[in-house]
Amino acid sequence: MTELISRRDLEFLLYEWLDVESLTVRPRFAEHSRDTFDAVLRLSADLAGKYFVTHNKLSDSQEPTMSVDGTVAIVDEVKTALDAYVASGLLAGEFDEAVGGMQLPTTVSRASMALFQAANAATATYLALTIANANLIAAHGSEEQIARYVRPMLEGRYFGTMCLSEPQAGSSLADITTRAVRQSDGTYRLTGTKMWISGGDHDLSENIVHLVLAKTPGGGPGVNSISLFIVPKYLATECVSLPPSRNDVALAGLNHKMGMRGVTNALLSFGDGTFSPGGQAGAVGYLVGEENRGLSYMFHMMNEARIGVGFLAAALGYVGYVKSVEYARIRTQGRPRGMKDPEAPPVALVEHADVRRMLLSQKAYVEGALALVLFCARLVDEQASAATAETARDAGVLLDLLTPIAKSWPSQWCLQANDLAIQVHGGYGYTRDYDVEQHYRDNRLNPIHEGTNGIQGLDLLGRKVTLHDGAGLKLLSSYIERTARRAQSLGGEDQRWAQQLERSWERVLEVTNTLVQQRDSAAALANSSIYLECFGHVVIAWIWLDKVTKAAGRHGGFYDGKRQAARYFFIYELPKVAAQLDLLATLDATTLLMSPEWF
Hints:
- Helices cover 55% and strands 10% of the residues.
- By secondary structure, the protein is an alpha+beta fold.
- Strands 3, 4, 5, 6, 7, 10, 11 and 12 form an 8-stranded mixed sheet that branches. A two-stranded antiparallel sheet has the order 1-2. It has a two-stranded antiparallel ribbon with strand order 8-9.
C-alpha cells in the first residue's frame, strides 16, 4: 500500500529536526526510547492501512443516517476500526500514567494520529475528540470526574464531544441560550440546543461524554455567565444490577456536509423531555471547576482542537500530495515540447514542467504545514517536561501565539494542495474513481472548523501579538534570529534566504506595531485575515529554512527534495508577503466603507 505520510519525512521531522529522542532523558518520558516511538509509528501505519483506509470511501458514500426512533445507523466498518484502535492502547498514549496513560510525548502521539487522519479523516475524528475531551477533564475536573469519565474514555469505553455552537450562535458564544440551573443535590439541569456536534450521537461506545457550555443564573452579561458541564448520554447508577439510565439528551437531526461525511454531525436537544431522568425537566449535568469560568476551561479543549484541525488539514493535504505524485509517475500523457515525432510514446505526467510545478507547490505546502503542527506539539512537550518553570512558560507563550497559525495556515494551503492534486489527475481528478476529490471535500471543512480562519486572524492580531506585552513575538523573533544566523554562516543561497527572511520578519514587526497602535480598532482589524496569511507565510519560510540548515551537508534524493521545496517557497511564495504588508500598512478601509446595500 502507498504510504499515507512519508515515514522518512516523519523520521526527519521527529528525530533530525525536532530531536524528540532527547526528551527521553527527562523524567516524564524516561520510560521511552526511539524504539518505543518507532514502534508506535509502525503500529499506527499498520492499523491505519488495515482498518481505516479500507472504509474511507464507503463511509463517505454511506454516511450516517437517522432512523425514525432517533438512533443513528453507521456502517459496521467504523466500529471495527475504532475497536482495533482502542485495543492497541494508543488512545491513552499521551496521558499521565496516573490515569492509565503511556506518557508518550505529544509530538509522537500527534504524529501517530496524523497517520489515521490521513487514512480516514472522519473515523479518526471520534478518537481525536475523545482525546481532547479527556485532556480537558483531566486538567480541570475533580478526582471523581476523572475517575468516572477520563479513565473509561482512555479505555475506549466512552467517547467524547464538545458542545459549543447553537443554531443561532456559531462562534459568537456570548449569544448562546442553553441554560443550566443548580439543583439541591449539586447537579445541574440543562435545557437548550447544540448544533454541529461531531460525534454527537452513535452506538460506537458504551457512553458519550458531552462537554457543554451553558449559562448559569446571575453570572452577568455575555460570556461572563458561561459555565462548563459534563453531560453524559447515559447516567451511571450506583446499583450494578441496573443498567445506566438515559439522560435527557436527544438527537434532533443530522447535518449533511460536503466532506467528513463518515462522522455523525448532530443537532442535539438537551432537556426537551424526550428522556426525563427522575421525572424532572432538563438534562443532568455536572459542573466542571467553578461557575462562570466555563469559557476559560473550554479554551483548553478548543486550543487543542485548533491545533488538531491543523494536523487534520496537513494530513489530508499530505495524502493527496502522495497520491498525485504516484499518479503523475504512472500516468502517461503528451510528449515533451519540441518532440517532432507524432509516433513517439507519450511520457509520464511528471515529465511536464507544469506538473512538476504543481507537485512542488504541494510539497512545499504540506511538508511545511506538517512541520509547523509538529513544532507546536513539541512546544506542548516542552510545557510538560521542561527543566525550569521559565522554559515551560516560554513554550506556552509561543504556543499561544502560533495556535491561530497552526489552525489556519494548513487549512488554507493544504486545501490548495488538494486542489492541485485534483488538477494533476486531470479529468479523473474530479471523479469518485480516485481519492483526491474526497480529500478536497474533507479538507474544505477545516477553514471553518474550530473558529473560522477569519476568527483566527482577529485572535492573532487583536489579542495574541500583544499578549504578555508581546512576549510571544519576542520569542518567535529569537527563534528566527537563531535560524538566520545559522543560515548566514553557511553562505550561498542559505545566506540569501536568511537575509530575505529577516527582511520579511522585520517588516511584519513594523506593520504589527502600526496596526496595534491604531486607535480605530475596526480599521486596524479590517484586514486581519490578510495579516494572518502573511504572518503564516513568514513562519513557514522560517520553518523551511530551519529544516534545511539542520540538514546542511547531507545529500541524496530526500535532502535534495527538501532543499528544492525550500527554494520554491523562498522564490515563489515568500515574495507575496511584501505586497500584503504594504496593503496592511496603509490601513486601507475599502471593506469597512462598503455599504451592505451595495452588494
